[in-house]
Write a structure and sequence with these properties.
By secondary structure, the protein is of the alpha+beta class. Helices cover 43% and strands 33% of the residues. Strands 1-2-3-4-5 form a five-stranded antiparallel sheet, sandwiched between helices.
Length: 178
């Protein structure tokens, strides 16, 4: 009888050790699965943010801030583009000595016919090529129109799209009839 109790106790202990070991393995596996799931959710969110509409909106905000201006507002290019760019990108396009220039002549610049072309460069990077028509008016004179192209590189940083690189490619003349 004592042998049967010892044998049953041994079987019970073996089953208990088995269940404790399996519980530990399952808990570790569950922890790993949760970590993998969190990583995958983050990757999905990064790809969700790299949508054409969101990237184009950020690029358009930058282009307007950079190229549209009214000299009577006394706001520098750097102040206008700061919310849309990284510091490195701002350094490339800020005119030297701009804040020192005070003009009594009113200059306005307005954009029209802006076309944006989007290209994804990865989960948190994108490129936007822009063509736009810029009308510059000095005082109350006739506006001068130029067509301009800009290539922008954007990156999703701290939950927003920021311009990281800017290349103003050229001014061009639109062929007639197009």
């Amino acid at each position: 009888m004592v042998e049967i109790k010892t044998w049953l106790f041994g079987v019970f202990v073996a089953i208990l050790v088995f269940f404790v070991a399996m519980t530990a393995i399952l808990l570790n596996s569950n922890h790993q699965i949760k970590a993998d799931l969190a990583t995958e959710k983050q990757r999905v969110e990064e790809y969700k943010n790299n949508q054409e509409g969101k990237v184009k909106a950020a690029a358009n905000n930058f282009i307007k801030a950079y190229m549209e201006m009214d000299s009577s507002e006394r706001q520098t290019t750097e102040e206008r583009i700061e919310p849309y760019t990284t510091p490195e990108a701002r350094e490339k396009v800020i005119p030297p000595g701009e804040s020192e220039i005070v003009s009594k002549i009113k200059i306005t610049s307005v954009l029209s016919n802006t076309k944006l072309y989007y290209s994804s460069k990865g989960k948190n990077k994108a490129s936007v090529f822009a063509k736009t028509t810029r009308s510059i008016t000095v005082d109350k004179g006739e506006p001068t129109k130029t067509n301009e192209m800009i290539d922008l590189q954007l990156e999703f940083i701290k939950n927003e799209w920021l311009v990281t690189d800017i290349q103003v490619l050229s001014q061009y003349d639109e062929p007639e009839g197009l």
